[in-house]
Amino acid sequence: MEFESSNQPILKEIVLEEEPSIYFREEGLDNSEEIKDRKIELLYGQNIDLKNVIVIHPKYHRYKTRFIKEKSPFFRYVQTVDTPKFRFWPFYGAQESNLELSYNRIFDSVQSNLKKIDSYFDDLRLRQLCYTEIKDQIDELWEIRPLDDNYNELIVLIIQFMKNNLPENLTKEQVNLLKVSLNKLKSREINENDVEKTFDDLIDSGMIFFPSIKGLSELYDYVIFFASKSFFRY
Amino acid sequence: MFNRDSEISDCITSKIPFHSVHISKYVLAEFIRTIVTDACSLHSILEEEKDLKSVEKRLYAIFEKEDEHLNRIVNRYILLMESIEYPRDRPDINFAKGIIKNYAQCSIKILKKQFNILESNVNCQLASTKPRRDGSKFKIDFPCESGINHIDCTIIHYITSNGTFLNQIESGIRAETEPYFKELRELIEKFNNRTIINCSLQYCKILGDLIVLNDCPRNYHLVSKDHHFETLCPITGHNLIKVD
Which of B130, B150, B170 delimits the end of a domain? Predict the structure, then answer.
């Protein structure tokens, strides 16, 4: 069911709540349209059946995020309403299919951009454009990421690598390694070794992982930041 | 790793693939004592707070105490937070946790991968320490403070067996008026008078520059941002490349 304007007052009330609460709707046994609105306040450790539950936390209501899974005993599904095509019922099925669609759409775009970079590698302008688009697409992936620690670690790693490396400085090998890393995200079955290997491969290829932080060494007492003490032989 | 805005940094970076950049094991220990420990502490704060606004509030509340030492710590946390482009970028505490966790975990790995680690005159066990998981948080066990490997700390042995080096430094900085050199001079005098017989993390902090200087082979160039080395290197005859 599409979000209807008649539902807006209820949803507005939800997003203005100060504390997270769970709101859920019950479907009639005959799968009819008759839906009751109910609201419950959650207590710490309270066990509830999260099927058919939609939770809206006020901190998300300003963002465009449609769906975020949170690792929390209080809420697993967070959905915001500031989009006209907001779907919320039957949200369990809708979430899954929407997620799948979003994943496929994002990965198609990522693949298409990687292909363009690869095919026109010497076109720096195009490389920059495609790289920026991929970064935005990975940001979108973060918003719909699954509830999995390894997946989250991998996506943070990739975001960090992409952010701290300029597309014009990348080699073909580095682009290929990024492609491999992004493909791992598509599988969504990621283990610790995948995360470690991705990190090792990208670092070994010479990609930069940390941003430049000015003024950090001056904030340590006496002993200066390690980089200021490295020594090398000419 | 965090400073790439100078020609020297470019020069060092260009030498990394040829394995011609070195740090001593003691520098690695210093890195763990400073950046990695800060990252673990900041990560703990992120774990304790519900969102980044609360983290920000908590950090700024510390400023109000007007404690210089705490202010420096908070300033470092703020720099780390700014490095993830908070608050300009995504105000997402889970993302911030992921990034700060990487400062704690990946930075040691990068150091070990990119630099040749030379043995140090002080065999600091902290160099072999890694952040330990403690529930959802990370902690660093300081061997010398926890007492676990207290006996393995060789700082006193280092001091007693490097008397000539320390006295050379002490006489070389006699005319220096900067508080750091004054404190260093006093410490060396105490060692000479045998009034200090135990190891202490505080001595490590003061002696750090000397230990690093002593660890650096004479035929290497020592690269530093620290102006103390401008005074210390001529005393020992080390070649210094000062990074501005």
Answer: B150
